[in-house]
Amino acid sequence: MPDAQPSTFTVLAHIPGVRTLTEERLAELWFRLSDEGLVESLFHDGGVRNVGEFIAFMESGKVYCYVVYLEGVAVAFTWLNNFAGRAAMIHFAVLAAGRGVKAEVGRFVVHFLLHGRDSGGNYCLDALYGLTPEPYAHVLRFIRRLGFRRMGSIPGAVVIRKMEDEPPRYVGGIVSVCTRESMEMLKR
User: Fold this and answer.
1) Confidence of residue 74 (pLDDT cuts 50, 70, 90)
2) How far apart, in Å, are the Cα atoms of 183 and each of 58, 120, 168, 169?
3) What is the pTM of this model?
């Protein structure tokens, strides 16, 4: 893929009131995530195990789902949930087609989410936060480059269950937060 500029990305959303991602597109996304081996790390708690559960989860009114496209090809997937005022928990994956533009698409997604405005011109979100499994060092390095700042660690906060019949394993969760201000600090 060519070098991507933020203006070349397109976003389809599945949020209350805006449903540009159909069930068919969500199913296609599930199979892409599965084929690319991303399901286990994204849904590390074992809470989503098949396409039906995935669609039901993404269609719940508590989840805001976005797929980012470059030249008509899905390159990233993100969803928000666990809203707290004007902050939301973010989950994010770069698909195989987006690996060459991983940093660009990551910055685009964070900017897109933190700079979205409502009809009155007010920001919709002031912060994104994550609870990343401590063993996911590569994810922690990546999100730091996007403007996320480590706030602390919660022992045993994340469950990892690779197989349905496997007992859960609890690991520390790293709490990270990104704001418009922390994104700006990266530019300095």
Assistant:
1) very high
2) 27, 24, 35, 33
3) 0.89
